[in-house]
Amino acid sequence: MIGFRLAAQRPPDPERITDTVVMRFEHIYEVDPNLMTEHTPQQSFPAWDTLRIVDSRWEHLAWMHDHFADSVVSGEELLREIEGEEGEEA
Amino acid sequence: MPTVTLSDALLDELVQICGEEHVFAGAAARFNRARVPSPFPVHRWDEFVPDAVVLPTSAEQISEVVKLANRERVPVVPRAGGTGLTDGAVPLRHGIMVDVKLMNRILELDLEDRTVTVQPGINMLKLSEELKPHGFIYPDNPASYPCSLVGGRIGTSGWSLIGGRYGHTRDLVISFELVLPTGEIVRVGDGGGPKVRKSSSGYQLKHLFMGHQGTLGIVTEATLELVKRPEAEFSAFYAYPSYLDAWRATGDFARSGAATLAGVVLFDEWKLAYLRRDDEAYIPQPESVKAVVALALYGNDDEVRASAKRMLRLGKASGGTYLGDEISQGDWASRHDRYATPLHGRTRDGQVVPMSWHCEDASILYSQLPAVREKWHAIAAGLRERFDMFDDWGMFAYTNGAFKPWGDYLTEIDIGIWEMQWDDESWAAWVDAKREIARVALEHGGSISACHGSCREGEVDLVPEELGGGFEVMKAVKRALDPNNVMNPGKYLLDRAYEEDAP
Amino acid sequence: MATREVGSEGGDGALTEQFVAEWRNAAYNCYSSGHKFCREVCPVMQVTRDEAHTPTAFHANVVAMEQGHLSIEDVARDYVHCTQCGACELRCPNTLFTGDFYRFRTRTVDLVKAVRALAVESGVHQPGWQRWNELTDERKNEPVLNGTPVSQEHVADWADGLGLPVGGETVLFCDCEAAFYRTSLPRAVARILQAAGVEFGLMREQWCCGGPAAEMGYVDQARRFAEHNVADWRAVGAKRILVLDPHDYISFTEDYPRFFGDDYDFEIVLVVELVAELLREGKLTLSAPVDRVATYHDACRLNKRKGIYEAPREILRAIPGLTFKDVDHVTQWSYCSGAGAGLSIERPDLTAEISRRRVERAKRLEVDTLVSACVWSERPLSEQGESQDVEVVDLMELVAQAAGLEL
Ligand SMILES: Cc1cc2nc3c(=O)[nH]c(=O)nc-3n(C[C@H](O)[C@H](O)[C@H](O)COP(=O)(O)OP(=O)(O)OC[C@H]3O[C@@H](n4cnc5c(N)ncnc54)[C@H](O)[C@@H]3O)c2cc1C
Ligand code: SF4
Predict the structure, then answer these.
(1) ipTM score of the complex?
(2) Is the beta carbon of C32 within 6 A of some atom in ligand 2?
(3) What pTM was estimated for this model as a whole?
């Protein structure tokens, strides 16, 4: 969906994950807001901003991989290869 | 309130040397160059403010500034990125700050003999971006890779996260030009030719002029190693049920002999507890995960694949649980960013407060890691008990040696400090704690610092003990090269070089 | 500049105190990191290399003000050195890695605006900005032509002959720079929308969005302008506002909601995103080949501040004949034209140098065209493009050409 509407920017209510962690958007953890009541109040955070930061983080990480090497070797893939080799040996 | 102690005449001379637009004496310019990111007594800020700041554009200008400082007996403090964690770029006696950031050009790219010559104000990440189209990288990769600068890397003799494979700053800097404390401009390297990697001519001056925290001169140009960009990167994160299991596995990985091995990192359970506070990779980990080991490989694709398989077999044999590609790759790529996060800070009752990050960085022998760990955590616990402004953020140990990454480890305990709370009492307790942390490192046959340097309040008291007769040599060198004690005075107890009975 | 001053005791006590109380936590949050990951991405810092122009300093100054070491007079000028591009606050690990988790991120842009506002309230003016805002207040639009009269009478001259109605559910807001200077952009946009069958009208009386005033610290004026525009939207029955400039998009999605709260029920649509959608839906087709080799300049306010970088690329890839040499949008976090937030008014030399470097980077890709989606960037970039033989065009101008539309 394109277009900004203020009403759509209110984040969903949090769901508890651990003693100190909650979740509002899928796969996005947040601190339990009760821990930020005394010294460091939370800021008002429209939904677009949360999603922008999360997306940017992944883009930044991909950029870092690309900065250091042409390709990234997957451990999961190699583990499957190793299993195959071990299977053959057995 | 600090008052400017430099005379108008002296400021005028600085302007004549560096140009009006490159000399700053305003309050904001000076206050913002008093501090580095290590814990700082904010309640005593004005004690560390330089009198004037210059942003020179050439070695000749720096030489003139240093000569002027000698004539007038005014301190000179070099500053590059200002990210150093041992307060090297913090003026202890005010004076003239020589900020080298404006000298950030690439001077020569030699694709044939594989060197790149740069000015000291250039940042490594930015340099590597320029090298990428040519197929090269400059792999001096501290966690401060996006922000520290080549001059500061030389000033501290830094340590790189991928140094096991590519070497640390001292292995990657071939030669450099510097302005001596008396103003002469010299070039030091391994030998005569600025691009020679190994020579036996004369004293090995390159090492002497690295890691001196700006007490022996100001680097104005450096010739660096040009390294082929890796074809492949591999990283793997393993979980273990206990610290000792993880420690043994760390040893196995580090001693594997794989030439592509860039580094192995051991996280203890305090570090995991800390990461569980806010790191998406660790929040869902079960409580049975008590320690983590990470490793990274770089190099040609075929070599990386072969050694990755070896590592995966070792990981399995060591009883580790592979944490999957997403965490392995994502956490490795975030190695620069996950360090100093203020909101990790918690008061004793669990409230979030912004805390600064103290990073202890001793070199500790592999065999001594478990023992040192316990003593360090005890010191941190003592601090937190007395003052609800300190927080134990856990420990990392990284393979330390270049190319032979198995004997000792850069060992850090991270301590969060709520700096809004400083007063003289808590500051004094902190300085004592730092001295104690350093003492433990020495008692176990280690060194106070693997990369930052050891000239902060507290730890610096033990430097003569660590170096023994070597400290006497340091004093003799300092007095010989800097007869007026103008270069970054007050650092490393080097004032003692000028006391009556000094050598 | 080697003027001698010593730290003073602080300007207007009460105003500064209030400001410090509001910004103290945020300031300490940066101060406690102080690691400067923000520095090398900052377009101004890349040129001046002056630590006093960094977000680190911008935050530490607040701590120093709290400690009584610095006053607003000491620091006001330093805060001129910011284009509010948002690179620093996005790259800051306290945003990028933990901002979402804590619902507490680095807000350098807001801080810079707040300090500028404190300066204005404390009577510390930057002469160029003061004059700019006085003229804007008089004329209701920004004095973009350096002397050529800007006035309400002429605010819709760009639309001559296009037959656009006033009012309706959907209204196109035309930025001042576009309305008075680069009129080819709004004409292109109007033609494209008409060709795609989008119905829209213009405002009765379009004033400046107020964003620039807010960016330079003239908050009351910004609010007055916002109030006028919103009243005009309501008067013509508008529900949906089409925006062709990223700066206006920021005003309408960040400043206006702050001014008006929940009453602010308009839908704000960025033209670039709308056009990408029209192409996707087949309502607009591009069939006239555009024979150019181009790269795209990520508009800072879209890429860094809003995370909008895909739509413009999607459009560029849909243009027939165009050879598109892309530079990824993360690399472009450190790119800027230098035009934003009044820098070009107070430090035109810096804007020119930032633009020169941006064009130089394009030139290295061996392109003949630099495409932008931010009208404010296009003037300084074009000036530099002339001497480096790179033509600067707006994305919508290119789309209009590819759609075979006459401007
Ligand atoms: C988040 C973070 C992570 C870090 N991670 C690492 C890490 O992994 N490895 C590591 O080694 N360090 C690390 N550090 C510490 C710091 O980045 C390094 O010590 C770095 O080498 C300092 O470089 P700088 O350019 O910031 O130098 P500065 O702090 O400006 O200066 C450092 C010292 O060098 C001197 N100096 C500066 N310029 C010159 C010059 N031109 N000639 C001579 N002396 C000079 C200064 O006087 C000072 O004593 C980290 C710091 C931070 C904030
Ligand atoms: S703005 Fe962010 S990156 Fe920059 S110094 Fe502050 S905390 Fe560090």
Answers:
(1) 0.95
(2) no
(3) 0.96
